[in-house]
Amino acid sequence: MDASGLHIDGNGVAGTLEEIFTTEITVAERICQSCGSRAPIGAHRAYHGAGLVLRCPACGDLGARVGALGDHHHVLELRGTWVLARSP
């Protein structure tokens, strides 16, 4: 967690993302729709609130939102993401 206690890096939400993608996702690269930067999910800033919010490490824009529906269902929104790709 950062010094202000407001966010963690994307690695801190690896478990939740693995439940959705069924694979290790923190090494997958995301291309930001706002600034065009390319960064692994693990480098993004993650905020907890009413779900999880991932923000671009370069510009801070919204990259993804994850919400829970009950114990075993998730809602994933990738608004702000052009590409999410994992190398073989």
Overview of the molecule:
This protein is mainly beta and 88 residues long. The protein has one domain. Helices cover 9% and strands 42% of the residues. The chain has one helix spanning 14-21, and strands spanning 8-9, 29-32, 38-40, 45-49, 51-55, 62-69, 73-77, 81-85. The strands form two sheets. It has a five-stranded antiparallel β-sheet with strand order 1-4-5-6-7, with no helix packed on it. A three-stranded antiparallel β-sheet has the order 3-2-8, with no helix packed on it. The longest helix has 8 residues, at 14-21. The radius of gyration is 12 Å and the shape is globular.
Compose a concise summary of this entry.
By secondary structure, the chain is mainly beta. It has one helix spanning 14-21, and strands spanning 8-9, 29-32, 38-40, 45-49, 51-55, 62-69, 73-77, 81-85. 9% of the residues lie in helices and 42% in strands.
- CA radius of gyration is 12 Å
Report how far the terminal alpha carbons are from each other.
30 Å
Number of domains: 1
Order of helices and strands: EHEEEEEEE
Shape summary: globular
What is the tally of helical segments? 1
Question: Low-confidence parts lasting 5 or more residues at pLDDT below 50?
Answer: none
Helix content: under 10%
Secondary structural class: mainly beta
Main beta sheet, described? 5 strands, antiparallel
Rounded mean pLDDT is 83
Count the beta strands. Answer: 8
Strand content: 35-45%
- Strand order, biggest sheet? 1-4-5-6-7
Question: What is the topological layout?
Answer:
Blueprint (H helix, E strand, L loop, with lengths): L7 E2 L4 H8 L7 E4 L5 E3 L4 E5 L1 E5 L6 E8 L3 E5 L3 E5 L3
Antiparallel strand pairs: 1-4, 2-3, 2-8, 4-5, 5-6, 6-7
